[in-house]
């Protein structure tokens, strides 16, 4: 099955795929498995993440995610995530796409819309305007959303009162808004999003991931032609 995906990705070239989900959705494990499979098949790609992905953005990640829950104001947090994105886009993502590589990115602007715009309540318009300025033309070609009930995801990631970063420490109400926000985004942008049930086993989720991407890029190839 991965062979068809490899063919479809190679036919498209310079493809930007983002992966989204709540805490404990298992997306990072899945991206690593996908990256290993693509590497074994010789697909020229990078695996990266947000916030982070280059030294300057990783420094910002450290500032954003560590310390007291109220370390940053909501607006300050939004701007820090967005600053990290500007660094990452300019230094890593755009050069990789320009070189024809497949870019696998663990979280991107949909996380900002959902966590800062919706759950923190800064508003969709504010987040959208800011992201438009920073992202410009570099929008994802496809976004995989790993859907999981927040109760299950938080239990997997160590629990909301035991979370390792400032965001995980938020309560169930916050994380329920995150999930509802992601589901709403998948409905708003059905042409870009594919949804995977992340409550299944790691093997089953991986099989779904390869399958949905294979179908998606078979369609994209037709679209690009
Ligand atoms: P991670 O746990 O997937 O590494 O992501 C770090 C945390 O940052 C996670 O709780 C989601 C959050 N986040 C935002 O709140 N806004 C953003 O724009 C991004 C990229 C992540």
The helix/strand class is alpha/beta
Overall pLDDT score: 92
Helix content: 55-70%
Cofactors, ions and other ligands in the entry: thymidine-5'-phosphate
Report the biggest beta sheet as strand number plus sense, adding barrel if it closes.
5 strands, parallel
Please give the domain count. 1
- Supply the CATH architecture: 3-Layer(aba) Sandwich
Compile the SSE list and pairings.
Blueprint: H1 2-12, E1 16-21, H2 27-40, E2 45-49, H3 55-65, H4 74-98, E3 102-106, H5 109-119, H6 124-135, E4 142-147, H7 150-156, H8 172-188, E5 193-197, H9 202-224
Parallel strand pairs: 1-3, 1-4, 2-3, 4-5
The structure holds thymidine-5'-phosphate.
Residues 23, 50-51, 81, 106-107, 111-112, 115-116, 165, 167-168 line the site of thymidine-5'-phosphate.
